[in-house]
Specification:
mainly alpha
Length: about 160
């Protein structure tokens, strides 16, 4: 028997469709997302969304936001290195502060949001911008939980 090692594996079957079965909630999530993005640089917003989605293992959101990031001018090597962003030199101090805050908010059970992480972000973002960044991180974490729980999968490419 021969196997085709290059054959793709089908994605897990979607469990549930929240847009169909909880439409008011889903519309509220879309509105939350729209509000959370206000005032956040689009390139930084997509970096944060991809990073949180990688931490949460949400393939649908990783695919969507990496695609959006590339459309906004992000560079592929930066996206690919997000899991090891501390080991690279190509993220600005402001981006690094946002990525560290993203990790702390996303991985709350691993030490909550340390004062040092929050202070670093507060040094790089005006208060209103920091509030929007926090809102954006909370929103993408909510989307990740929807995607992972319902088993959303990116479209085949």
């Amino acid at each position: 028997m021969t196997t085709n090692d290059n054959a793709t594996v089908s994605a897990p079957e979607q469990r549930i469709s929240l847009p169909d079965l909880a439409p008011e909630f889903y519309r509220a999530m879309v509105a939350l997302d729209r509000a959370a993005r206000q005032g956040v640089d689009p390139v930084l917003a997509e970096l944060v969304k991809v990073h949180a989605s990688m931490l949460n293992g949400c393939s649908f959101c990783i695919d969507m936001h990496a695609t959006d990031a590339l459309k906004n001018g992000e560079q592929n090597h930066r996206l690919l290195s997000l899991p090891a962003w501390r080991e690279t030199s190509w993220f600005t101090a402001k981006e690094r502060a946002a990525l560290a805050l993203t990790e702390s908010v996303t991985l709350l059970t691993q030490g909550h949001v340390p004062d040092a992480v929050y202070q670093e972000a507060a040094e790089h973002f005006e208060q209103a911008e920091l509030a929007q960044l926090i809102a954006l991180i909370i929103a993408i974490n909510s989307w990740n939980r929807i995607g992972v729980t319902s088993r959303l999968s990116p479209a085949a490419k």
